Amino acid sequence: MKINNKIEDAINKQVNAELYSAYLYLGMSARCTELNLKGMAHWLYVQAQEEMTHAMKFYRFILERNGHATFPAIEGIPSDWKSPLQMFEAAYEHEQKVSALINNIVDIAIGERDHATASMLNWFVDEQVEEEANSSEIAGKLKLIGESKEGLFMLDKELSARVFVDSTQPAGAA
Ligand code: FEO
User: Fold this and answer.
1) What confidence tens digit (pLDDT) does each residue in 126-155 have?
2) Which of 1, 14, 83, 130 is most buried per CB count within 10 Å?
């Protein structure tokens, strides 16, 4: 069944929001590289890659449902990050906003009785729990670390271990 205009519009907006997320994390990654925090820069770069997969999952869904994809401008991001703590607090705040956007599309899909969209969105509802938890946990650790250079060094090392996995693809897919 072809996607209806209301849902098509909401998902197109979400593609844009996910691309903005990728842009945001890429900007934070660049800033961490400048600060010589290579592990954090890596973690944030992987996050930017994840956000691209989120955008593509929504984009593919529009086309699969015979919808029309739109490409409005992606908003610019802040670039005056003062500290890693400020970045991860902003990331947590951002993820809570993304969760609200996704919940809103779920409400629209239920209102329109579009079960296919509601089903696709379940994955994102679950994913947002993890997205919020990740940024909140790192912000919490940074608060604990405070001014400790040693603590920051250890956290940076821990974050360097993140591996990019495209969880939007079924297991074994290329
Ligand atoms: Fe795609 Fe971080 O939500």
Assistant:
1) 999 999 999 999 999 999 999 999 999 999
2) 14
Is 132's C-beta closer than 6 angstroms to any atom of ligand 1?
no
Question: What spacing in Å lies between the alpha carbon of 105 and ligand 1's midpoint?
Answer: 14
Name residues whose C-beta falls within 8 Å of residue 81's C-beta, 6 or more positions apart in sequence. Answer: 28, 31, 87, 90
Q: Encode pLDDT of 162-172 as tens digits.
A: 999 988 776 66
Q: What is the CATH number of domain 5-70+82-159?
A: 1.20.1260.10
Cβ(174)–Cβ(131) below 8 Å: no
C-beta 98 within 6 A of ligand 1: yes
Tell me how far apart the alpha carbons of residues 84 and 138 are, in angstroms, rounded to a whole number.
9
- Domain range list for the chain: 5-70+82-159
Please enumerate, as own/partner, the contacts of 99-107 that have beta carbons within 8 Å and a separation of 24 or more.
99/128, 99/131, 99/132, 101/13, 101/14, 101/17, 102/14, 102/128, 104/10, 105/7, 105/10, 105/11, 105/14
Q: How many CB atoms lie within 10 A of CB 105?
A: 23
Q: How far apart, in Å, are the Cα atoms of 113 and each of 2, 71, 109, 128?
A: 13, 26, 6, 23
Supply the pTM of this predicted model: 0.95
Rounded-to-5 percentages of helix, strand, coil across the chain: 75, 0, 25
